[in-house]
């Protein structure tokens, strides 16, 4: 399950950076930030779609 080992992925980048964190902690910064921002953005998108499509929330003033 997941990406093949020869394909780059953010999780693979974080795993390979783990062995170098003592010398260069910034190596994990960019893949970790990209992963966090993507998860946060998708969460916001999901909330917006739910607010638009959930009939129970219409007319309640929520949001």
Oligomer: single chain
Indicate the low-confidence ranges by residue numbers: none
- For the secondary structure, the number of strands is 0
β-strand amount: under 5%
Shape call: elongated
User: Main sheet?
Assistant: none
Distance between the amino and carboxyl termini: 37 Å
- Number of helical regions: 2
Q: Strand-and-helix sequence, N→C?
A: HH
Tell me the Rg in angstroms.
18 Å
User: What's the mean pLDDT score?
Assistant: 82
- Structural class of the secondary elements? mainly alpha
Q: Report the helical percentage.
A: 40-55%
Describe this structure in words.
There is one protein chain. It is built from 2 helices and no strands. The protein has 63 residues and is mostly helical. It has a domain at 25-57. The radius of gyration is 18 Å and the shape is elongated. The N and C termini lie far apart (37 Å).
Give the topology, please.
Layout: H1 10-18, H2 29-53
Helix pairs in contact: 1-2
Concise synopsis of the structure shown:
With 63 residues, this protein is mostly helical.
Main attributes of the structure:
63 residues; mainly alpha
């Amino acid at each position: 399950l997941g990406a093949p080992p020869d394909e780059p992925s953010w999780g693979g980048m974080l795993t390979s950076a783990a062995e170098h964190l003592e010398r260069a902690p910034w190596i994990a910064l960019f893949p970790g930030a990209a992963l966090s921002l993507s998860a946060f953005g998708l969460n916001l998108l999901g909330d917006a779609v739910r607010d638009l499509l959930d009939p129970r929330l219409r007319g309640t003033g929520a949001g």
